[in-house]
UniProtKB/TrEMBL annotation:
Keyword Flavoprotein: yes
Family: Belongs to the MQO family.
Alphabetically ordered keywords of this record: FAD, Flavoprotein, Oxidoreductase, Tricarboxylic acid cycle
InterPro entries, alphabetized: FAD/NAD-bd_sf, MQO
Gene expressing this chain: mqo
Descriptive protein name: Probable malate:quinone oxidoreductase
Organism of origin: Microbacterium fluvii
Taxonomy, superkingdom: Bacteria
Pfam families reported for this sequence: Mqo
UniProt pathway: Carbohydrate metabolism; tricarboxylic acid cycle; oxaloacetate from (S)-malate (quinone route): step 1/1
Gene Ontology molecular function, alphabetical: L-malate dehydrogenase (quinone) activity
Regions crossing the membrane: none
Catalytic reactions of this protein: (S)-malate + a quinone = a quinol + oxaloacetate
Cofactor (UniProt): FAD
Keyword hit for Lipoprotein: no
Length: 490
């Protein structure tokens, strides 16, 4: 048996790249190996065209701050998401200063975040949300308007030929961002390779088994030639998107029992017409339709990928039994186990609105999809927009003591009791909060080392171990510093 490596990272996305970067900074002597089943890294959910690239900071996403049954709004979740994104910004800033990452414009660009709603009920809600958020230091600079002239200055495409007399309102945070997580992921892996990390593509991990000595046998095969092999590892992280469930199930850890995933795909309308793109520099989110999952909140986004600006609108939900865009059609049935079939059936029974929504989305023609865009952009023309296929998301289904089973939107880390293996399930706001998620994993899986790592973690992420929002001066200073390093003040 070969000598065990210290860490195996499964999946070539932003999660593995972030964890590998942190571990290499904290333990430069550790042997780390990365396995990616495709021929390149960052080809699934981290790819720029497979996600919205919003840089989720809860500046514009209404689902992080829903209205309560009594009409109240609570900023706690929005503040938490923003705190997490600030940790990402701090780490990226440090890595730029260290020369690990390229020029900021290669992966992040200043793009105002807006929310736009119509109708008296949603206008009243947005006003309440604004009143609550403007009190929060991390949301400093948020603006609100019901004036068409002001909103026209912010985002002209929203106002052109809009019907008079319709109640509408918008909020705007100039300090928002657009992030190319594909470019960021590739840069992080390139640096890891330069530091001795073995990044192996075209290698599919098939099975995980724990040995008697506590190490993990990672069984794999090469995509080219189907040559099998195995690696022994002291710690395994499964950052394989929807396939994380399959691999964690193969590991036999009891913590994965009761979990399943429901795959949801997405499409976006895209235009690169310079005349249209020039009129819109913002990410504009609105309310999700009834029955739609939070990941399907409609938004009209500026995207900057490889230096080229374009606009995306969507997403429009699609359905595929695959857990990854390049997965297998048997994925959805291969996940079934005695421990999760009950929760999954309960989810199916109690989420009829979601099924109805998916059927409606699948039935939409190109014209109907552009009609949805015209709610945002009244002047949209069918011929200016083309449909692109986005990534595949695997939403978490799990046991619930009261309901039997629930469909959960968000991300969740599953780890073994001894901390020798962990994996990530779920979707948004994953990529934007990857740093925070991986910091939590370090505490859970390496409790005996975390105290010794903390001085270096504070160098990488100055606010590590603290929250910014309760400290207005610290929040303002951090926002200003990262904006300067990331060139977001330009």
């Amino acid at each position: 048996m070969s000598k065990p490596v210290d860490v195996v990272l499964i999946g070539g996305g932003i999660m593995s790249a972030t964890l590998g970067t942190l571990l290499k900074e904290l333990q430069p002597d550790w042997k780390i190996v990365v396995y990616e089943r495709l021929s390149e890294v960052a080809q699934e959910s981290s790819n720029a065209w497979n996600n919205a690239g919003t840089g989720h900071a809860a500046l514009c996403e209404l689902n992080y701050m829903p209205e309560g049954a009594d009409g109240s709004v609570d900023a706690a979740k929005a503040v938490q998401i923003n705190e997490q994104f600030q940790q990402s910004r701090q780490l990226w800033s440090t890595l730029i200063e260290q020369g690990v990452l390229d020029a900021p414009s290669t992966f992040i660009n200043a793009t105002p975040h807006m929310t736009f709603v119509r109708g008296e009920k949603d206008v009243a809600y947005l006003k309440k949300r604004y009143e609550e958020l403007k009190k929060q230091p991390l949301f400093a600079g948020i603006e609100y308007s019901e004036d068409s002239r002001v909103i026209n200055q912010w985002a002209p495409l929203l106002m052109q030929k809009r019907l008079k007399g319709e109640p509408f309102a918008a909020t705007r945070v100039p300090a928002g961002t657009d992030v190319d997580f594909g470019a960021l992921t590739r840069q992080l892996f390139a640096d890891l390779k330069s530091k001795g990390v073995e990044v192996v593509t075209d290698r599919e991990v098939r099975k995980l088994r724990k040995r008697a000595d506590g190490t993990w046998r990672v069984t794999w095969r090469n995509a080219i030639g189907r040559t099998p092999g195995e690696t022994s590892a002291r710690f395994v992280f499964v950052g394989a998107g929807g396939w994380a469930l399959k691999l964690l199930q193969s590991s036999g850890i009891p913590e994965i029992s009761g979990y399943g995933v429901f795959p949801i795909g997405g499409q976006f309308l895209k235009t690169s017409n310079p005349a249209i793109v020039a009129q819109h520099k913002a990410k504009v989110y609105s309310q999700a339709s009834v029955g739609a999952p939070p990941m399907s909140v409609p938004h009209l986004d500026t995207r900057v990928v490889d230096g080229e600006a374009s606009l995306l609108f969507g997403p429009f939900a699609t359905f595929s039994p695959k857990f990854l865009k390049k997965g297998r059609i048997t994925d959805i049935v291969a996940q079934v186990r005695p421990g999760n079939i009950g929760p999954m059936l309960k989810v199916a029974v109690t989420n009829f609105d979601l099924v109805k929504y998916l059927v409606g989305e699948l039935a939409k023609t190109h014209r109907k999809k552009v009609d949805s865009l015209r709610v945002f952009m009244p002047t949209a023309k069918d011929e200016d927009w083309t449909l692109i296929q986005a990534g595949q998301r695997a939403q978490v289904m799990k046991k619930d003591p009261q309901k039997g089973g629930v469909l959960q939107f968000g991300t969740e880390v599953i780890s073994s009791a001894d901390g020798s293996i962990a994996g990530l399930l779920g979707a948004s706001p994953g990529a934007s909060t990857a740093v925070s998620i991986m910091l939590g994993l370090l505490k859970t899986c390496f409790p005996e080392r975390i105290e010794g790592w903390e001085p270096r973690l504070r160098q990488l992420i100055p606010s590590y171990g603290e929250t910014l929002n309760p400290r207005p001066e610290a929040a303002a200073a951090t926002l200003s510093k990262t904006a300067e390093v990331l060139a977001l003040n330009v």
